[in-house]
Amino acid sequence: MTTDLNVQTTGGGPTVLFIHGLDSDAAVWTPVIELLDDHTCVAIDLPGHGESPVSDDPARYERESLLADIDDVLADLDDPVVLVGHSLGGYLGMAHALTRPDAVAAMVLVSTGPGFRDPDARESWNQRVRENAQDYGVPEVAAAVAFHVDAMVIDRMTELTLPLALVIGDEDRAYLGANDYMEKKLPHAERTTVDGARHYVMRSHPEAVAASVRSMTAAAAG
């Protein structure tokens, strides 16, 4: 493995790769992983998060660098792999699947959005990330992992034909509309809306996320 990211691997069985979002790290998946002890669960820390190193190079936090990290991790995993991403992690999962078709067999997108088509909306998002970087618990430079630079994912989303699950809390108001949109654009997706859950549904309702993972590992196995 050539990536410098911290990678944690537990269990044995069908392979699942977990990617966290901004303001968290691999540990956010622990409640779900504990329910999947019959799976090989691989969780990474994105650059500057958790136990992964902090780089002073802004390019280290750009999307293509992050997708290359996912490539490096996948290279050491047994096929088929189900990618599970939360928020930013789900967005990166979609970007990876769109630019590397067939690299993963299925995906679970937890509290995820497809990005922004409008340039002003993208810049507004990026500005909020800059302004709130100090509150995210990561170095300011590392908050750049969440920047949006184009509309590639939202424009090409309908190309995602792999088995796919959406998990969203019914109180996650910032992402409910995005999931409604993705469900419309991806009619083959299995959607789970979790009552009483907010953005970190894998913490509050890990059983719902674990159930979707099991459904996708079954789909990946054919």
The CATH topology corresponds to Rossmann fold
CATH architecture: 3-Layer(aba) Sandwich
Radius of gyration, in angstroms, nearest whole number? 16 Å
Question: What general form does the structure show?
Answer: globular
Going by CATH, what is the homologous superfamily?
Answer: Alpha/Beta hydrolase fold, catalytic domain
Percent of residues in helices comes to 25-40%
CATH class: Alpha Beta
Spell the H/E element sequence: EEHEHEHEHHEHEHH
Give the terminus-to-terminus CA distance: 28 Å
Major sheet attributes: 7 strands, mixed
The portion of residues forming beta strands comes to: 15-25%
Structural class: alpha/beta
Structural domain tally: 1
Tally of helical runs: 8
Q: Average pLDDT across residues?
A: 96
How is the largest sheet built, in terms of strand order?
1-3-2-4-5-6-7
Short summary:
With 222 residues, the protein is an alpha/beta fold. The chain has helices at residues 30-35, 63-74, 88-99, 119-132, 152-156, 173-185, 201-204, 206-220, and strands at residues 7-10, 15-19, 40-44, 81-86, 106-110, 164-169, 190-194.
